[in-house]
Amino acid sequence: MNRTIKHAETGEVILAQAHWCASFWCHFHGLMFRPSIDPDKGLLFVHNRSSIVNTTIHMLFMFFPIAVVWLDADQVVVDKKYAKPWRPAYAPAKAAQYYIEAHPDLLERVEIGDKLLFE
Fold this sequence. Notes:
- By secondary structure, the protein is mainly β.
- It has a single domain, classed as Sandwich (Jelly Rolls).
- It is 5% helix and 41% strand.
- The protein is built from one helix and seven strands; from the N terminus they run E-E-H-E-E-E-E-E.
- It is globular.
- It starts with a strand and ends with a strand.
- 30% of the residues are buried.
């Protein structure tokens, strides 16, 4: 299931196609082994509760850099990072319930404190 992610205040489309990733398999596989990702696509990882540990990612078996944007339970951006391939871990600065993995261009469209909508 795909969602469009928009900025709550401006209505700007932040990510045109974000795959809703809530299953164990989707969390496990993520973007590993893919050769690249389109700038308008990404994964929206969903967890049952806010956590730093559960939303920490690794970049093993990744062949390209990505943007990672973490959001709290209210869908407010709490952290964002440029994640490089083959790094062991990236953790959010604050507990998050959602995170987005997408093309690095995403980092130019969101700021910490922005509220996003999943449509």
